[in-house]
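During the no-cost extension, the postdoctoral fellow (Dr. R.K.) reprocessed legacy sequence entries with the updated structure-token encoder. One reprocessed record is reproduced below for audit purposes.
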Amino acid sequence: MIPDFIRAHRPFFIWLTSLSALTFFGTILVIPFILIKMSPDFFDPEQRAPYLQRRHPVIRFILVLLKNILGIIFFFTGFVMLFIPGQGLLTMMIGLSLINFPGKRNLERHLIQHPKVLPVINSLRKKAGKEPLRL
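Re-encoded structure tokens follow.
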């Protein structure tokens, strides 16, 4: 019964398998790169995107819009990765860090302080010769 269902919907399962493989290998490459490039004071409460403050208001609006769209894509991709291979929670966290919403900084700090999250990120940063994240 199940093999018949899979045969009947073969293009969908090929697409789903390809998407799963792409997200798995893509996150293995992209997530560590982002975590290593992240400023050590990224989660500092006083840190407020200084690179955007110097931009023209129209350019700033476009950059913030693109950053939020990218964050939403990361967040939902991470959610999907909870059910398929990939680093779902980490991808969702990076997506949240890109999206602007009220209370975001408090949520980020709460998530990053988890005993299983911060040590892993800081060990990755240490291997890359970067200083640990400061909270």
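Residues 2-127 form one domain. The chain has one domain: 2-127. The remaining legacy entries will be reprocessed before the final report is submitted.
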